[in-house]
Every structure is written in C-alpha cells, then in structure tokens.
Task: structure prediction
Amino acid sequence: MKEAIAILTGGGPAPGINTVVGSVAKTFLAKGYRVIGLHYGYSGLFNPNPRYEDLDLFKVDYIFNQGGSYLTMSRFKPTDKDFEENFNLDFFKNNDIKLLVTVGGDDTASTANRIAKFLEAKQYKIANIHVPKTIDNDLPLPAGMPTFGYQSAKNAGSVIGRAVYNDARTSNNWFVVAAMGRSAGHLAFGIASACHYPMIIIPEMFNKTTITVDKIINMMISSIIKRKLIGMDYGVAMISEGVFHALSEEEIIKSGIHFSYDEHGHPELGKVSKAMMFNDLLEKKVKELGLKVKSRPVEIGYEVRCQTPCAFDLVYCSELGMGVYKLFSEGKTGCMVYISQEGYVSPLYLKDLQDPETGKIPPRLVDIHSDKIQQVIDNLMNFITPEDYEEAHKYVADPETYDFRKILNW
Result:
C-alpha cells in the first residue's frame, strides 16, 4: 500500500483553497504518495463512514485555479466526547496516512493539534501541517504577510465597490456599504480605500471612545454635509462588520432593529444585513435634520468568499501548498506553513501566536496610526472639521457634533 496524506478544509470559504489543495496534491503525487481528499471537514474523522476520495493529477489540475472549495467544508468542532467515542482511527490505519493537511483558520489549526496528540496517545504518530486562511486578514502572521484569500476578496469587493460608487455619482445619491470582518477592518478599509470612499468606519477607529450607533450615524452625516459643502451631493460610506459586532447588546436593542434570538437569549446578528440596518438609521437621522439625501444599502459579504483567486493568491497559495511538502520532508509537525516576503518557507507554531494566558490567537488589527491609514483619512475621506463649522450651519445647528475627529475623541 502506498503511503498517503489526507487533506481537509474547515471553516468558511476563501479564494485560494483549491489552489492550496491542488498544489499540495501535485507535489505529493509527484513524490509517490497517495493523496486523499476528505469532505465535510473534521466531521468526516468522527464518522464511521466518512466521505473521501483519491485526488489524482487530472482532478487537481482542473480545480487548482477555481474559486470555492472542491472539498466540502464544515465548521464542525469535535468535543472531548467525540474523541472518546467517535474518532475514526481506522481511517488513518487502513489508508496508511502519514500526514494530515488542514486548511482553515485558527480553530481548524487547534483541532489539528488535538488530533495529532490524540493519535500519538494511541501510539499512531501522524504529522499535521496547517495552512492558515481568512479573507479578514486578521491572523497575526509575521512581517504583515496577508492571509491567503484576503487579496482576492478585496479585489472582488472592489469591483462591486467601484460600481456602487459610479452608481452614487451617476444617480446623485448615497450608498451605505457593509463589508465582512468580524474582528478587524482590513477588508472594509482595503475595499473602500481602493474605491476612494469619502467615509470609512472600522472598529479600530474607536480606539479612544466607545462605539455607539449615534457615533456611527454622525460620522456618516459628517461626510454627507462635507460633500455638500464642496458641491458633491453623492457618496458612499463603508462600514466594517466589526463595528456592528463591537456594539453592546444595549446599543443593538436601542437601534430599534428587530432580531430573532438564539437559545441563550442573544440576538442572532448574522441574520441581519448590517448595510440595511445602518441605512435605515441614517435615513431616520437625515429626515430629522431636514437634509435632502437619498441612500441605499449594499452588503459585501458571501459573494467575495468563493471568487476566483487573483494572481497574488494563485502564486501565494501555490507556494504554501508546496511548502507543506518541504516542512513534512524536514520532519516538521504541529505547525502552520509560513512564506516570508522574501519567499522562504518556515514553520509557524500556534504557541508563537497564542496569548500565553488565554491560549487564543489575538486578531491582527488595522494599525490606525500607520501612514498607510492616516493618509487615506487625511486626503481621501471627507468630513467636517472646525474650519467648516460656520458654513455647515446652513445644514445643521450644531456642526461640532458632526466633527469626525471630535466624534472619535482624536
């Protein structure tokens, strides 16, 4: 029997997954290994009849540049009871698997480590190497290297974003756009800065004040009034999903939006269009102020996750896939594959990224103080400043309330 490797994909999709899987498979096939693709993520390893298939050269050559994931994904996270009662050790023994390759986020990586330790305790040692992905770009890779999928999602989001901006200019109205990014504003800021949006709102901006609905709406009003002052009665405001998730439950309830609730009594935020919510609140505020503004909501979310990978991610993911073999051949295990900006492959261990007290990987946030961010804020965004107060009185009685920097306590 040929020695084999198994590959699975976990979490949510990101452009480049098939490129990683295809590149891992091509490399190991060329070295004489059998390559097994496991469907439904980790759930397949806790099932007596997992769905899996051999990945041959023709199959992976077809999928490597495609969007989505050929291997069906799953967010399944095994419990201790699953390990005790349902783990399918025979899958590894019967197929002579020497390496488990996992593609996913930090949760997927953590589970891979648990599986490796479990197998070792059963005296069946197996290497595991993880390939980290997320379109949110919030995994703290060294030297600011992006997570794979981010560049492709940003590119796809920017195509939508440019069309939205052209619509705003053409129809002389405003749009409220929301983009994915639960913890950090990388994707929202990347899309919005590529499209020269006059207002961008990400959670990292609230580093000196608490995030509230009123502050978010007032920031959009600030941009609307400023654009009126310069003779541009149209624009787009980008709001990161992370801003929404950072709101307190009290603020969410105060917003007046109706939610369904989970079994713990918490509002199910994932079922709500953030763009629609903030657009409704903006319309209400605009009406109160007597401003003549039309606005429309646009959500940029799931449609960017399964895009065809751009050239950056096609190359990057190919390097990551081939890097898996390099680390495996060097005897590395329990690690993630990392490609430096100079193109060198090295192992990256979870313990090097985890918080020593909580064991969790802290998200990589947007560096709000960097020139990259501050130049966009200073030169591309439009908002009220003290110099605008006198002229802004024609639209609002209290322009200072809508001063962008005062809102943020900057």
About this structure: The chain has 16 helices and eleven strands.
